[in-house]
């Protein structure tokens, strides 16, 4: 019991704001089926969480990541510019982007010519997809490894 409590604290501290995601991860997993034609989730170690297309970037660790920064992915200039201007994917930003990617970038960058390579729009359920994706990332992996090491040393 003590281990579960400490794991929850580690995760909550490692992911400020993400632990309070309002979405439903289970619903998000189902909704992510719409995203799989372009996106996949593959850990930094190469473990495939969800098979998918490669048109869009790998979504491993998107929660809390600066926009436009997945290595070896060719983003549109405007998404990279938004990331350089401080855009970090949290639930609110991610959900707004999913609802209207081009409109989001135009507003965020205050540039009515901004474009997004992502044509897909998700009018509802973005918070659920974010809750699903927030489960997968380096901070969670490190917390799980730390907890496993702590558990084995206390045995």
Query: Sheet bearing the most strands, described?
Result: 2 strands, antiparallel
Strand percentage lies at under 5%
What is the CATH class?
A: Mainly Alpha
Write down how many β-strands occur, each being a DSSP E stretch of 2 or more residues. 2
Indicate the mean pLDDT: 84
Rg value: 17 Å
In the CATH hierarchy, the architecture is Orthogonal Bundle
Terminal CA distance reads 14 Å
* SSE arrangement, N to C: HHEEHHHHH
In total, the number of domains comes to 1
What is the name of the CATH superfamily? Cytochrome c-like domain
CATH fold-level name: Cytochrome Bc1 Complex, Chain D, domain 2
Enumerate how many helices there are, as a single number: 7
- State the helicity in percent bands: 40-55%
How does the helix and strand content classify structurally?
mainly alpha
Q: In order across it, which strands form the biggest sheet? A: 1-2
* Overall geometry: globular
- Low-pLDDT parts are 1-19
Keywords:
mainly alpha, 7 helices, Cytochrome Bc1 Complex, Chain D, domain 2, single chain, globular, 155 residues, two-stranded antiparallel ribbon
Structural account:
With 155 residues, the protein is mainly alpha-helical. The two termini are 14 Å apart. The chain contains 7 helices and 2 strands, in the order H-H-E-E-H-H-H-H-H. The chain has a two-stranded antiparallel sheet with strand order 1-2. It has a single domain, classed as Cytochrome c-like domain (Cytochrome Bc1 Complex, Chain D, domain 2). It is globular.
